[in-house]
Specification:
5-stranded mixed β-sheet, transferase, alpha/beta, about 25% strand, acyltransferase activity, about 300 residues, Peroxisomal Thiolase, Chain A, domain 1, ACP_syn_III_C
Length: about 300
C-alpha cells in the first residue's frame, strides 16, 4: 500500500499583501471582497528567484533524503501550468542533479492542473507496486513560479502565491497510508479560465456538486463514512465555495483546514501538502486519523485522496 513517508516545503520569505498585489497587477476588483469573504490576506513571492531553486530548496528540507537519495527511483514534478520555465530551461532536470538523484527517472504530470499532485501520488504508487522493490521510493515536487499574470489571479476564485512541497512516497509504511483516490474530469470546461459567460455559470453550478461527489467517492472507496474523516486538506481557493462543497458532502465546516489561506494564498498543487504540514504542527492530526487531500484543476479535473495518518 502506498504511503506518504515525509513532507517538506519551501516558501519564499517575501510576503505581499493581497490588496497591494492586485493593485500592482492593475486588476480592478474589490480587494476587501477577497480578504473578508474569500479568505485571502497575503501571498509569498520571489520575483528574482527561479523554479529550480525552489524545487531544490524543498527537496533539501526532507531530512531523510540525504540517506534515502539512492533509493529514489522516480522524480516527479506535478505543476499546474505545463510550461514552468522559459525555454530552454528544465527545472526538473536541474533539481535532479542538485539533489543527487542521478538514478531517478524524471517526468512531469500537469494534465490535471492543480489536481496533478494527487494524480502523481496515485501514479507513483502504481509504479512502485509494479516494480516490486519494497525499498524503492518516489519523490514528488509540486508548486511553481507565478511568472505570468494569468498565474497570479483567478477571478472570484484565488490569488496565487509561490510555494513548493516535496513529498517522499514509498510502497509501504505504518503512517500516512493512502487508502483511495477518486477523480473526475469535466471536459466541457476545458477552456477555463477563458470560459464563456454561459459555461462559467454552468461550471459554478456543477463545481460544488461534483467535487462533493468525488470526496464522497474516495471516502467510500476507503471503506469509510464522512463521520470517519477528521480533516479535509484542500487547495486554497474561495472559502465560500468550500463551505458549499462541505455542505453538499455532509461534512461540518470544522473539518475544513484552510489555516494557510490567509497567509499563503493558493500555491497551486502544493496547497494540500502545505496544509498537511500546518495541521501536523498544530496538533490537528493524530495517529489513526483519516484525512482527505483534495483539489480541483482548471479544465476541469476534480480529485480526492483519503489517507490514514
Amino acid at each position: 500500500m502506498t504511503s506518504i513517508l515525509a513532507v517538506a516545503s519551501y516558501l519564499p520569505p517575501r510576503s505581499v499583501a493581497v490588496a497591494d498585489h492586485l493593485a500592482e497587477l492593475g486588476i480592478e476588483v474589490d480587494a476587501g471582497l477577497y480578504q473578508q469573504y474569500y479568505g485571502f490576506g497575503r501571498i509569498r513571492r520571489d520575483p528574482p528567484g527561479n523554479l529550480a531553486e525552489q524545487l531544490v530548496a524543498a527537496g533539501r528540507r526532507l531530512d531523510r533524503l540525504a540517506t534515502d537519495a539512492p533509493r529514489v527511483r522516480y522524480l516527479v514534478h506535478a505543476p499546474t501550468i505545463a510550461h514552468t520555465a522559459p525555454y530552454p530551461h528544465t527545472p526538473l532536470w536541474q533539481a535532479r542533479a542538485e539533489l543527487g538523484l542521478h538514478q531517478a527517472l524524471p517526468f512531469t504530470l500537469s494534465q490535471h492542473a492543480c489536481a496533478s499532485a494527487l494524480l502523481a501520488i496515485d501514479t507513483c504508487g502504481r509504479l512502485l507496486a509494479a516494480d516490486g522493490d519494497p525499498d524503492a521510493l518516489a519523490l514528488l515536487l509540486t508548486g511553481e513560479k507565478t511568472f505570468t499574470g494569468v498565474a497570479q489571479f483567478i477571478a472570484d476564485s484565488a490569488v496565487l502565491g509561490e510555494g513548493v512541497a516535496a513529498v517522499l512516497i514509498g510502497p509501504g509504511g505504518d503512517r500516512d497510508r493512502v487508502l483511495s483516490y477518486a477523480t473526475r474530469t469535466l471536459g466541457e470546461f476545458h477552456e477555463a479560465p477563458e470560459l464563456s459567460p454561459r459555461l462559467q455559470e454552468e461550471f459554478q453550478g456543477r463545481y460544488t456538486e461534483v467535487l462533493a461527489e468525488v470526496i464522497l467517492a474516495a471516502t467510500r472507496q476507503a471503506g469509510l463514512t464522512t463521520a470517519d474523516i477528521t480533516l479535509v486538506l484542500p487547495h486554497n481557493v474561495n472559502r465560500i465555495s468550500w463551505w458549499r462543497v462541505l455542505t453538499r458532502a455532509g461534512l461540518p465546516k470544522s473539518r475544513l483546514f484552510l489555516d494557510n489561506q490567509a497567509e499563503l494564498g493558493h500555491c497551486f498543487g502544493a496547497d494540500p501538502f502545505l496544509g498537511y504540514q500546518a495541521a501536523l504542527a498544530s496538533g490537528r492530526l493524530r495517529p489513526g486519523d483519516h484525512y482527505v487531500l483534495t483539489a480541483a484543476g482548471l479544465g476541469a479535473t476534480l480529485a480526492a485522496t483519503v489517507v490514514r495518518h
